[in-house]
Amino acid sequence: MAQATTTERFLGWLKTITFYELLVGMKATMSHLIHYKPITLQYPHEKRTLPDNYRGMLALLRYDDGTEKCVGCDLCEAACPSRVIRVVSAEIPGEPTKRYSKEYSMNMTRCLFCGMCVDACPVDALGMTREFEWAVYDKRDLQLNKQQLLAIGDRSFPVREKRLELQHQNVAFFNVAFKHVPQKPN
Ligand code: SF4
Ligand code: SF4
């Protein structure tokens, strides 16, 4: 028993003079130093790979014939928890059953990028792009109008959908305002 105690005391003394606990504590640090791999990206020269479901700057979209998808229904404005969106809708001249957004603006200083406006839109007129480099010196530059939002959509979604009437024939068949009604399939 006395022998064991002497051994333990010797080991304790050895640990003290060799800073054993300190070395154990530094093990993870030393391991990182030896296998050093930088994790800092030198932005803007290096850029991180964005996840597939990244939610960046919002955009307004068009159909493949250039028509704006937005029908001015205001649902995005109602769904937005931060009051980012403002829509002023009007009838399409000569087509009283159809509406469009005469004015559409977004105050992007308030946006949470939650995507609720995109989910609320019944015609998929809104999209979230992968654009994130929108730092500005004047926050008034983040008050985007319809033409700016359409331009973002044009560059971010170059492949556009066909008009809704042409995607779903039943929509066209029952849409009395659509001039070129395709034949309903048998
Ligand atoms: S992403 Fe969210 S906060 Fe931003 S405009 Fe859409 S609903 Fe509003
Ligand atoms: S973007 Fe969609 S939800 Fe918003 S007003 Fe236009 S059609 Fe309606």
What characteristics describe this protein?
single chain; 186 residues; alpha+beta; Alpha-Beta Plaits; 2 domains; three-stranded antiparallel β-sheet; two-stranded antiparallel ribbon; 8 helices; 5 strands; elongated; binds iron/sulfur cluster; cell membrane; NAD; 4Fe4S_Fe_S_CS
Mean pLDDT: 89
Ligands bound to this protein structure: iron/sulfur cluster
Helix content: 25-40%
Report, as a whole number of angstroms, the end-to-end distance: 98 Å
Q: What order do the SSEs take from the amino end to the carboxyl end, as H and E? A: HHHEHEEHEEHHH
Radius of gyration: 30 Å
> How does the helix and strand content classify structurally?
alpha+beta
**Silhouette:** elongated
Portion of residues in beta strands equals 15-25%
* Low-pLDDT regions: none
Structural domain tally: 2
Spatial order of strands in the largest sheet = 2-3-5
> In CATH's first tier, which class of the largest domain applies?
Alpha Beta
Largest sheet: 3 strands, antiparallel
Could you give the count of β-strands?
5
The name of the CATH architecture of the largest domain is: 2-Layer Sandwich
CATH fold-level name of the largest domain: Alpha-Beta Plaits
**Helix count?**
8
Describe this structure in words.
This protein is 33% helix and 16% strand. The radius of gyration is 30 Å and the shape is elongated. The strands form two sheets. Strands 2-3-5 form a three-stranded antiparallel beta sheet. It has eight helices and five strands; from the N terminus they run αααβαββαββααα. The chain folds into two domains: 2-34; 58-174, 2-Layer Sandwich (Alpha-Beta Plaits). The protein is an alpha+beta fold and 186 residues long. A hairpin with a 2-residue loop joins strand 2 (85-92) and strand 3 (95-107). Bound molecules: iron/sulfur cluster (2 copies).
